[in-house]
Amino acid sequence: MKGLVYDGPRSVSVQNVPDARIERPTDVLVKITTTNICGSDLHMYEGRTDMETGRVLGHENMGEVIEVGGAVDRVRVGDLVCLPFNISCGFCRNCEKGLTAYCLTTPVDPKMAGAAYGFAGMGPYAGGQAEFLRVPYGDSNCLVLPEEAREKQTDYVMLSDIFPTGWHCTELAGVRPGETVVIYGAGPVGLMAALSATLKSAAKVMVVDRHPDRLALAEQIGAIAIDDSKASPIDQVNEQTNGLGADRGCECVGYQAHDPQGHEHPNLTLNNLVQSVKFTGTIGVVGVFIPQDPGSPDPLYKKDGEIAFDYGMYWFKGQSMGTGQANVKAYNRQLCNLIQLGKAKPSWIVSHELPLSQAPQGYEHFDKRDDGWTKVVLHPGS
Ligand code: NAD
Ligand code: ZN
């Protein structure tokens, strides 16, 4: 089958790779119809991770079930399914509490929790930017979609990651109706956090970035765009909140953040959040911060393998913070309902739909944050 493989930093290509197949009786085999490029893929693409070459990328997947293993009894051939990016067993201590991002069964390393498709350090699983995908524990890891999803794949595919992740960020931040919320990052994840805060009836949603096309998408759903290339985002948020700071903050950038002056400040967003959120406010962090080895040559990151977080100011302000990967499955049913009932249309951020053969160009443009390249959706069958 054809799959998009990692060849090395800033190099991916579509190759013939071994066919995905049923390997265990609990597996489901899916023919991928829609699969996205994610900001998280850029951690591998930009060479920030120890990704082995030749591996198929892609963790935002949906498609049609074409085969099920002998021990699968809920999912059926022909079902259209969306696949949470977390690969989880459904029965370990963490999964039984809904914490599927921290599954104890699916990582191969016993010191790890959580696994994902096509991701460095998250298990050996192949990604779905390919014609077919093996889904372990298929009964647990397939969200069976309503029939209308066949015609609205660019909405429903967002259930695999970024819509639940944006929602998770607002859950970690504790967003409630009538509150003010500041979101750092107007990439796909930040825009989904803005959508989620809006769905939760936040009174004022502010989104910080510097790309006009992305900020315009935030404005389309009623958020206030804060352009940090024009003035300090902290000052702008304070102006918008009568000097108090926002009630809640969301970090949707991660360790690849750049500061507006072009310096590399991976921790900048965390410290900006502490400064932009009120005393006793709450911050949710879904932007990825991967532990780094001291002395790692990664130029985009840290000093001595650590980030310089201003803990003193965070403590002084009496704030609290929630972090980590989204437990996608825990939110999928309710977010699927919001799409089906017309209350959420996450496809508003989709800028490009490409065949798999053009995925390398999609990566290149998305990685450069080229104007208008907000979210790239791939269709392997087309
Ligand atoms: P993206 O890179 O397209 O978006 C990031 C945005 O942040 C860009 O628009 C960029 O201009 C902006 N930005 C950079 N520096 C900034 C700064 N200092 N202040 C404000 N904005 C700044 O990526 P994305 O797809 O939106 O993903 C964002 C992050 O979320 C990544 O780290 C990704 O790995 C992570 N993520 C986490 C989860 C999870 O489960 N926790 C899931 C998916 C993605
Ligand atoms: Zn993703």
TrEMBL record:
Superkingdom of this protein's organism: Bacteria
Domain Alcohol dehydrogenase-like N-terminal: 25-138
Any one Gene Ontology molecular-function term assigned to this protein's record: oxidoreductase activity
Signal peptide: none
Coiled-coil positions: none
UniProt KW NAD keyword: yes
Occurrences of domain Alcohol dehydrogenase-like C-terminal (ranges): 188-293
UniProt keyword Oxidoreductase, yes or no: yes
InterPro entries (UniProt xref): ADH-like_C, ADH-like_N, ADH_Zn_CS, GroES-like_sf, NAD(P)-bd_dom_sf
Keywords: Metal-binding, NAD, Oxidoreductase, Zinc
Cofactor (UniProt): Zn(2+)
PROSITE patterns according to UniProt: ADH_ZINC (PS00059)
UniProt family annotation: Belongs to the zinc-containing alcohol dehydrogenase family.
UniProt-recorded name of the protein: Glutathione-independent formaldehyde dehydrogenase
Species this chain originates from: Catellatospora citrea
Source lineage: Bacteria, Bacillati, Actinomycetota, Actinomycetes, Micromonosporales
The gene coding this protein: fdhA-2
